[in-house]
């Protein structure tokens, strides 16, 4: 299959430091050189050189943190999806975490404009004692008349395997219509955010502490926290703007980093 963009990235542990061992990209996907905002963890910024996803685009991203390695990955800016009159945009992402590794995969928001159709498929394979942070933010683009929810549909599937056992399957389908904000849909909200944590240290005490850390967010937002079958927590957020979702995920990320990794938050300073 021919892709619009392909990116492969792998980190290994060498002595007391994680380094990038594999780095390959072609087409519309690129990445920066590793930046060591922490002395032993590289940070990578993913870049789309085309300015946005358009009709029939397909993308493949494969990222791995080998045994004991640490890697932080984010994007340079929000991902924009424009009108797709013929075929939807397809983005496939494969993430692998070796034993005792840490992978933070925290892309900027996805913005879908009028007539956009988008399929996102993310597959994660995780080994024992690994720690995984993942976020996903979906926001509607603005139409010329100032209205929201002009995209056609977005389908996002997240599958997480541990030792070939499927432990998480999250399927989110957003298909706007006149009742998109109604009961059993988005309940009057317009933006969706997800922050997922997998760690053998993420127990009931951690969940309670994370809930306390999020209690300051009450106005114009609804959120829920749930435990996962294999030592993990998922935070789901409904809001009316992107900013509050970003702040909530940043707060949850900072708490998780401190409690699970013994590390302070890293400021990526993208803007």
List the helices and strands and how they pair.
Elements: E1 5-14, E2 17-27, E3 29-31, E4 35-38, E5 41-48, E6 58-65, E7 70-75, E8 79-81, E9 89-97, E10 102-106, E11 110-112, E12 117-126, E13 131-140, E14 153-162, E15 165-174, E16 191-198, H1 204-214, E17 221-228, E18 232-239, H2 242-261
Parallel strand pairs: 1-6, 5-7, 6-9, 7-10, 8-11, 9-12, 10-13, 11-13, 12-14
Antiparallel strand pairs: 1-2, 3-5, 4-5, 13-16, 14-15, 16-18, 17-18
Task: Write a structural description.
With 271 residues, this protein is mainly β. The protein has a domain at 5-192. It contains two helices and 18 strands. The chain has helices at 204-214, 242-261; strands at 5-14, 17-27, 29-31, 35-38, 41-48, 58-65, 70-75, 79-81, 89-97, 102-106, 110-112, 117-126, 131-140, 153-162, 165-174, 191-198, 221-228, 232-239. Helix 1 runs antiparallel to helix 2 (242-261). The two termini are 35 Å apart.
Give the gist of this structure.
With about 270 residues, the protein is mostly beta strands.
